[in-house]
Design a protein that fits this description.
This protein has helices at 12-24, 45-50, 57-79, 96-107, 129-137, 169-182, 199-211, 227-237, 252-258, 262-265, and strands at 2-7, 30-38, 85-93, 111-115, 142-145, 156-160, 185-192, 217-223, 242-247, 273-277. The protein is α/β, with parallel strands linked by helices. It has 2 domains: 2-145, Rossmann fold (3-Layer(aba) Sandwich), CATH 3.40.50.620; 156-244, HUPs (Rossmann fold). Strands 3-2-1-4-5-10-9-6-7-8 form a 10-stranded mixed beta sheet, with helices on both faces. Strand 1 (2-7), helix 1 (12-24) and strand 2 form a beta-alpha-beta unit. The protein is elongated, with a radius of gyration of 20 Å.
Amino acid sequence: MIKILLPTDFSENAYNAIKYAVELFENEECNFYLLNTYTPVLYDTEYILYSPSPLSLHETYRNKSLKGLEKIEWQINKDLPNSKHKWKLVSSFNMLSDEIKIQVKEKKIDMVVMGTQGATGAKMILFGTHTVHAIKKASCPLLAIPSGFKFKTLKNILFPTDYDLKFTDKYLNFLKGLIEKHASTIHIAKVYFGIPLDTEQEKSKKFLEEYFKNLPHKFYKIEKNSVPEGIDEFQNNNPVDLMVMISNKHSFFENLLFRPVINEIGFHIKIPFLVIPSGKYNS
């Protein structure tokens, strides 16, 4: 039984990510955990003066949260009914990234799926604030779905890497499972700046060659001035249904995701983006 955590702020973007997850795991038995977090203002003067409700502010927010989750559960079962899928509702008074971390640990979640923007998402931001915080703290694979992106079979998966990581089965097994289930081809790409691979990078590349030898795979060397430019060009010239990265603090991953200037370079997520923690990044 696969356990999937689905954070929602009740926006259209969040619901789109939920639909994507349901379609991605259409043929799998899953427990889907719908999560909504709320942080009510402790002293809401207008609420205290004018609300006739005998409920506390906390109870009011919680009831609203639960009703919203029940509405989503009803809607998704109407839109995409599936007897293999079970739904559980989680409403919590907490910050979203902190609650995701708690739920992943307590429920042994296999994957988190969420939208890249919230209800007021700005188009010029690489990821919404909540998504960035969730990625930084992720202790399991996290799949970010761009606003409005509709599910497509995972025929082609792009895996950019600088080979500056000692790859292990621990976090590649999840990726391998996706490739096998969806009969995907994985495209392993290194943006080349004219500097040859060192000994450790060569070892990492050979590990990947051996690891994926029985699955459709291709290696690429992309000559561009920056990693974002290289990834952007690959997406523009090749069909890609999913991009995957391993999050490790000391490689280009951190700069790629969390530098404010990234949008000035022109790098924007156009496809679902799977982040797999290496175990060395999150805290």
